[in-house]
Amino acid sequence: MSDSELDEAEARLAELKRRAAAGELTDEERREMEALERKLAAHHAARAAGVMSDSEVDEAEARLAELKRRAAAGELTDEERREMEALERKLAAHHAAISAARTAGLMSDSEVDEAEARLAELKRRAAAGELTDEERREMEALERKLAAHHAAKEAVEASAAAAAEAAAAGGGDRGSGSGKGRGGGKDGAISDGTDQGDGSSADQTVPGWVKKSKTFGARLAKGGFAGLFDTEDTLVASLAHDWGWASENKIEEYIIKHDAGGKEDPNGALDRVKGVLQELYGTILSLYYYYASATADLDTYTIGPNEFNMFIVDNDVAINGSPECSKHHLEQLFIGVDSGQKVKEEFNKLHALSRQEFLQILIRICVHRYMKPRRRGEQPLFTDVSEAMREFFSVHLFPRLDPAALQVSNDFRQKFVYIEETDEALYEHVETLTALYEVYSGKDHNRSDLTAHSKMLGMDEWLDLCSDLELIDDEFTLREARLCFLWSRLRVADESNAAQRRAMCNLRFEDFNECIVRLCTMKVIPTDEEVEDGGFTDGGEMFLELRKANEWRTWSMDRQIAWNDELRQPIWRCVHHIMAIITRGVEERLLGKDVPTTGNYKLTKKIIEKFKYQLPKKT
């Protein structure tokens, strides 16, 4: 709203509240008051998320244009340069917030008013028995659209409130994208340089301790901020590569054929689809790897028939009885896309979907679900492919996804990995971590395996490490161990490029450290208080004693946590106790269960090699 509209709305709301307190409010005025409260809440939430009014945008863009003109003429002062950079960040945050709101299904106030008025009219006609089939479909679509809007608005309001609470408390959350405030440690946390969804500017200043960090300094040295975070540039390049392969396999012709405006304006139809994908591609990649992780084998980088079936069932993608979108039709889509590729990129396995094939499948699902009759005799809901995609993703799919499929790695890194206490806790155990990494990454590989690296940790080696250290159990599952690995990698753009794929399939040492931090958020770890109350020295000693008494499973399952639950203690204390669990576990294996472990937290390569040698041989 504009400032004058805001003043008018707040004045009217105050008057209605006065009348309500006096018991003078009519039913119509009560509805008006509730509508005004919703409208003002949405406005304030949008402002908290970084959204500016139209007049503010116009003013900012005009000022920015003037500053850029002065910069080009070499007339800019240092103060004006800072102002220009601040305006660029502010506008970027505004457009990102608008894009995120649109993606989530948020509508403008005028759009809501128009939709609610039309829905009321359709409901009146329905009550009178006058509704046509086409109007019934329109009514159902409006109900879904408004439901998505209100859900998105509630999420924005909750995020804004939590962001304010976090700002007041100086905290952060686990990185689920929820914005819940929780302790982030000492001052000097890093921004990832992208929009955070709370209107904050993209501060790319690196605290001095990160530059000197022996744990994560290597990431910074290798690529600056691109070495610390998944970047927007990599995401754009990812879509460009995947779209290129999909285009080689005729996806553009498919879109043009099915879009009502495709024949008249093919480029427009394609641009609209690519625009939707660019907004959503980070989430699409997240859900792709989430389902790839459900595999029964070690190929966690493609989606096989079983994982695709899980995706369909989990999210109610099929429509029972549909002539075009039943489960059988979707299974045939999988077969058709997988086997029908005219041009296959390297590493593209048969009977499994690569990233670009999954992209094709999603577009085809949108067409089958919304642009063909859902029931015999019905008309399609949409004639524009991009609109069908927005409906599928924002209204149907995203609200149904497991939160783990929406995990944002950058959020986790910023709030739990790149904080000084975490860095210090990891470096305290650097000798043990280095020895574990070097021993487990030293596995002999088939020379024909272009994705393997003799000095980096692959998925199979990470799972061996977790299994050997007895970290995988009912509470921290094999799939969670896979997700732990997948979420700790930095994104690559071209998975068909051998060098990039090798980087995608392996963890560098600093990635391995992030993986350990993530493990701490996915597995129950004794707290300092529990350790002290039990009379133990650390979480490792407590773990071994409970396990000897056959009480660990019950104890841990009673305290079971999800990856995005609130931690029971600061993350750096979790790191301390998980390292105690690891080192005491190795000691126990070497010394025997009847010999007390020492609590010496330094394991050498020689000790770990001896530990591995004594393990039962895998068949």
Gist?
Helix 5 (about 110-125) packs antiparallel against helix 6 (about 135-170).
Structure description:
This protein is mainly alpha-helical. It folds into 3 domains: 3-169, no CATH class; 232-406, no CATH class; 409-614, no CATH class. It has 28 helices and 2 strands. The protein has helices at residues 3-21, 27-48, 54-72, 78-104, 109-127, 133-169, 208-212, 217-223, 225-228, 232-248, 251-258, 266-292, 305-314, 327-339, 355-370, 385-400, 409-417, 420-428, 430-440, 459-468, 478-487, 498-504, 509-522, 528-533, 539-548, 552-558, 571-591, 605-614, and strands at residues 457-458, 506-507. A two-stranded antiparallel sheet has the order 1-2. α2 packs across α6, α5 (109-127) packs antiparallel against α6 (133-169) and α15 (355-370) crosses α16. The longest helix has 37 residues, at 133-169. It is globular and about 80 Å long.
Q: Spatial order of the strands in the main sheet?
A: 1-2
Q: What's the end-to-end separation, in Å? A: 67 Å
- In round numbers, the mean pLDDT is 83
Count of DSSP E strands? 2
Which SSEs are present, and which pair or pack?
Blueprint: H1 3-21, H2 27-48, H3 54-72, H4 78-104, H5 109-127, H6 133-169, H7 208-212, H8 217-223, H9 225-228, H10 232-248, H11 251-258, H12 266-292, H13 305-314, H14 327-339, H15 355-370, H16 385-400, H17 409-417, H18 420-428, H19 430-440, E1 457-458, H20 459-468, H21 478-487, H22 498-504, E2 506-507, H23 509-522, H24 528-533, H25 539-548, H26 552-558, H27 571-591, H28 605-614
Antiparallel strand pairs: 1-2
